[in-house]
Structures are given as C-alpha cells and as structure tokens.
Amino acid sequence: MILDLSNNILCIYDDPPLLKPNQVSQIYFWGFSKDKESNKYILSTVEPQLILIKLLIYLDNEDITYELSPSCLQYLSELRQTRNRLEEIKIQAKDFKDGKLESIKFSDFLSFISTSIARPLKDHQVKAAVHLYLVENGANFSVPGSGKTAVVLSYYEKLRTDGKVNTLFVVGPTACFGPWKTEFKLTLGRDPHWKILAGGDQSLRKSEYYIPISKKAELYLTTYQTLYNDYQDVIKFFTHQGNDALLVIDEAHYIKQIAGSWSNAVLNIAKHARYRCVLTGTPIPRFYTDLFNLFDTLCPDNNLLDENTKIQIQLYEDKKDNESAKRLLEQSIGPLFYRVRKSDLGLVPPNFNPPYIINMNRYEKFIYDAIETKIVNFTKDDYLRDIELVKKLRRGRIIRLRQCVSNIRLLLSVIENYDEDLIHGDSELIKIITDYENLEVPAKLEYLIKLVSELQQQRQKVVIWSHFIGTLKLIKRHLISTGYKCKLIYGETPIEQTSFDEEETREKIRNEFTNPNSGLDILIANPAACGESISLHKTCFHAIYYDLSYNCAQYLQSLDRIHRVGGSEINKANYHFLQYANTIDQDIKSNLEQKAKKMYDIIEEDYGICSLDMFEEEDELQAYERLFEIK
To answer: Does residue 112 share a domain with residue 211?
Structure first.
C-alpha cells in the first residue's frame, strides 16, 4: 500500500488489496471515494494534514503495512518543521506573557521602536508590540482605546525596515479608514501613499490590484463587503511578485460567523499574505466558537484549532463547562494573543454624572401616557396570538416607547416587522403628534440646550448621542437656530473616497471637531455610525446621552470615544444622561449599568464570554416583562 499527497489530493493505492471491509468503511467515513478502475481511494481536502495524520495513526493501529510517496514524505517533513517552529514560538510567547523571557531575546526590536518610531509608545503598547514581533502572526485583543493601531504600525515598520513586507493591507469597517491614515502619520512620522478599495466604480477599483509594483500604494484600506466581492483579485495582488503584505483584520469580530461570506473571504486571502494580524476589543462576544475564524486567519496552514479541538470546545460549551473550554483554548491559542485590560491603561476614572431627571412638557406627557395605556390594553390580548408574532409586537411597542422619550414625531415612522397601529383611531392623538413641533419644544431638548450652553461657556467640546436619525436632525435644527455651530454623523453620512471628495465626510467632520481651533465644538452622532474606531478623546471630554437603547455593546463603544489612551491619562471623561421622569428611560439606564458592570468584569479575563444578555435580541422582551408585569 502506498500513500500519496499532491495538490491537496490524498490517495491510497491499495494494490494488492490489504484493506478489509470494515477498514474500507472507515476511510469512506473520512470522505474517500474509490476509483472505478483500480484499488485506489481518493480524497480532495483543504485540510490534508488532519486526515493524513488520522490515516497514519489508524493504519499503524490496524497493523497495515504502507509506504509514503516522496511528495508525501516531503509534506510531512515540512509540516513537522512548521509545527516545531510554531511550538517554539508558543513557548517563547508564553514565557513573555508570564514575564519569564529575558529582554535580550527581543532587544533588537526594543531598540528599533525606541529610535525609529516617531511617537513614543506607552508601556503597555511596547509590550503588545514585542509580543506581536515574537509570534509574527498574532492577535491583539486589547480593550478599545488602548492604541492597537499604533502597536501594529510599529510592528509593520520593523518588518518593512527588515525587507520582509512593503505593503500594509487593512480590512475593516469604513469607520476605521480615517484612524489608520491619521495614526500612520502620527506613529511613523510620514504620510503614507494610501488607497481606499471600497465601493465606487468596480472596474476602476479592481484595476488597482493589477498596477505595476512601482505605482502601488503602501497602505490599502478595504471593507469586508468589498473584500467578499474582490477576494480573487486580492489573492492575485498578494501573490504578484514583489507584493509582500502584512494583512490586518481590524474589528475582527465581524468575521466570527462560521462559514459566513465575509469570514470565508478573509480565510481565502489570509494564506497568501506574508504576515497576518487580527485586532478586536471584543474577541468572544457570546461563544468560544467566535475565536475559530480569528485563529484560522492567523495561521491558515497550521490548524491551531483543528477539527477535533473545535468539536471538543463546542461540546464543553454546550455543557457550560467553561473551565475545560478555557484550558483547551489556553493550550491551543493562549500564547498567540495579547490583551491589554482597561485597568492597565492608567486612565483617569471617568465621571458618570447622576442622570438629569426631567419632567415632560404637557403634550409629550399626554402622548407618552396614551401610548403606554394602549400598550397595556393590547397586552391583554397577546395570549390569543402566535408566540412569534407576540415577540415582534412587543419589540415594536418597546421601540415606540423609546421614540416617545426621544422625538414624538418618530411615532409617525414605520418600524420594520411591526405594523401594529398604536395611534390611528384616536383623532386627538394623531392631531397632536402631527402638529407637535408647533405646539411645544420637548423638555429634554430645552434641557439639552441649557446644558450645551453651560459647556460652551466653559469652552468645552461636547458629543451628543442619540439612536434615532430623526432626533439627531431635530437636535441639530434647534442648536443651529439657537446660534450654535454643530454637525452630525449618522448612517447616511458618506465615507471618504475619491468619488466623494466634494462631499462632507465623516472623516472631515471628525477632524474638524477634534481640531481645537476649528470653531466646531458640538458633534451630534448615533452610536451605530460613530461608536466604533473613532477617537474624540484628545479635545472632547463631555458626552451627552439624549436617549439610550438596550444595546450594551454600542453603549460601551460610545463611552470609549472620549476615554482612551493618548489624552485620558490626564483629562477626565464626563458623561451626562438626559432622562424623562417615570418613563422607559430609567429602565434602559438601569439595565445598561448592570450589563456594563458584567461586561467590564468579563473583559478583564482572557477568555470571558459575554453570554449574559449583553447582545441578546431578547433584551426588549425582558424589558417588556419588567415594564408591564407579565405574569
């Protein structure tokens, strides 16, 4: 019997036949098929090492004599060398994380970052950069605001200086583009030649992958969606002679979904990059399996987490045996990621002001009470409806209550998957809602203008958060009419690209706002568009929450916009919350505080999972039960 492996095709030449029927059944179980004209069994697989090792162990246990072809011997030799090198790296990285590795092992890198990096790194950034240098392909799971971008740029510059890479290729959400360009200049002291490969004319975009080496950029920025559309072109770009890329997957939690289209695109290109790095501050939002794609991306040819390990982790997870799952993860991937905790940053503790409790004005209270009463009455008949329909209705009703405390006119808008009519049939209610803006100014808006005025007198910049686009626009109109200069960022604001250079972009607005001398001191934003990858902390120390949602992830991200490394070591972040008395506002705030505390406790752990209703769609349903006392 001869075993051969070539181009990911594993063959068993069983001539003369040695395999018994039960042994043939076993290799069929692994996916082999028999050639119709010979005693040859064939398997095409993207993971040949796993099947080959299983097969060798099985044949040895069954006392079946076999030979290995030269190509198979060569493959096993290379696999053994790679595995040995990886084990050496893991031992070295673990020693470093445990404080046991002597600095002489990485003195060259320490010398480089102290002399060749324009902006000195913080102590915790130096440690993270050293770790990345030691592991070569590594993950940084440090908390938001810790300066992960500067760490990667320092590592990139060392690789570039050593002649190992000449291109930095970043995949991430559009909000990260501006920070990468800005941090490149601040960290390395030079402006990069950059290209944004996202959206726009497809043929023009794709032509960028095929330009001559002499004309290529140093920094490429693309989105997950564009990568999915262009991954074959990206592979050709990576494999073109002279293109040596460090691939960075930013906000890598976007690729946690197993077999997802975005994650598959990343996995397809990862093996063609010279070096790889993944970045996220929330590596395990809900399940340990969220880590699988991240480490498959880092080491696509090494199976840090092989199929057997993944299955075992899933079994532990199903049994809620977290300790066993953690031990297995630590053994497999622990040394290859670095994590800076919030407590390591040395930031001034933020100031959470007690909520400003505001009494509603006459008409908005009338409307809130009317909507709340209708919801109570509708709840009585929910038992007659299908349970899935009831869930949709209750989520929709919670959104209506949130709209009431944000902007009354939002009650006229359509909510996806919710068509229950809470206002029609009541002519007085409809008339008040329709004419509301002519009847009164919301009490919360009056208080906001008063608070903004006080901060402006103190010459303080302020970011105002709301979850509803209609509310953002309402706030902007009133502030401008009062004489204040302000701009807003929300989901429809375009991201900067060459085709949009005449339009105002998020990056330009953010840069104007963070410029201390721009005269733009008020930014209005929603967390969905501005809660991730954007830093405001160097010049803005006040955030006002006009309304909140039950989404704890977005809430925490928004908090971190003004509480980050590079400013918050000296300047205190101040948070202000506007709340209507005796409304859903109090329930949302209380719920977020409970989840935020759990989240902060969890993110101090290396393998903390946030399956504590942090991101659950059930939040609205649980709130409904609290508010309306469902028995």
So the answer is: yes
Q: How many CB atoms lie within 10 A of CB 390?
A: 17
Strands (E), 37-189: 40-44, 67-68, 138-140, 167-171
Residue 316: alpha-carbon gap to chain centroid: 25
**CA torsion, ordered 521, 538, 489, 557, to nearest 10 deg:** -140
Q: Which of 375, 490, 503, 365 is nearest to 432 (CA)?
A: 365
Mean predicted confidence (pLDDT) in 195-212? 89
For 206, the token pair is 């794709």
Residue 224 and residue 180 in one domain: yes
Residue with tokens 């770009």: 237
| Least confident range of 43-47, 231-235, 407-411 | 43-47
Angle between the 362-379 and 387-404 helix axes, to the nearest 10 degrees?
A: 170
Q: Which of 196, 182, 118 is nearest to 149 (CA)?
A: 182
Long-range pairs for 34-42: beta carbons < 8 A, 24 or more residues apart: 38/13, 39/13, 39/14, 39/15, 40/11, 40/12, 40/13, 40/14, 40/15, 41/11, 41/12, 41/14, 42/9, 42/10, 42/11, 42/12
Same domain, 425 and 569: no
Q: 463-479 pLDDT, tens per residue?
A: 999 999 999 999 999 99
CA distance 613 to 263: 24
- Mean pLDDT for 125-146 is 92
> Given 3-state DSSP classes, what are the helix, strand and coil percentages for the chain, each rounded to the nearest 5?
50, 15, 35
**Cα angle value 25/30/35 (rounded, 5°):** 70
First to last CA, the chain: 69
Strand segments (E) across 318-387: 337-338, 351-352, 356-358
Tell whether 291 and 384 lie within a shared domain: no
259-272 mean pLDDT: 91
Q: How many helices (H) and strands (E) does the chain have?
A: 24, 19
CA distance 577 to 365: 19
Q: How confident is the model at residue 505 (pLDDT cuts 50, 70, 90)?
A: confident
Q: Are residues 459 and 381 in the same domain?
A: no
Does residue 327 share a domain with residue 203? yes
Mean pLDDT of 334-353: 91
pLDDT at residue 524, rounded to an integer: 96
User: Mean pLDDT across the stretch 175-192?
Assistant: 92
- Which range of 416-425, 426-435, 472-481 scores highest in mean pLDDT? It is 472-481
Domain carrying residue 137: 102-344
**Structural domains counted in the chain:** 4
Q: What is the percent of the chain where pLDDT is above 90?
A: 58
- 16: cis peptide before it, omega within 30°? yes
Angle in degrees, CA 559, 560, 566, rounded to 5? 140
Helix ranges restricted to H, 271-339: 292-298, 307-318, 322-333
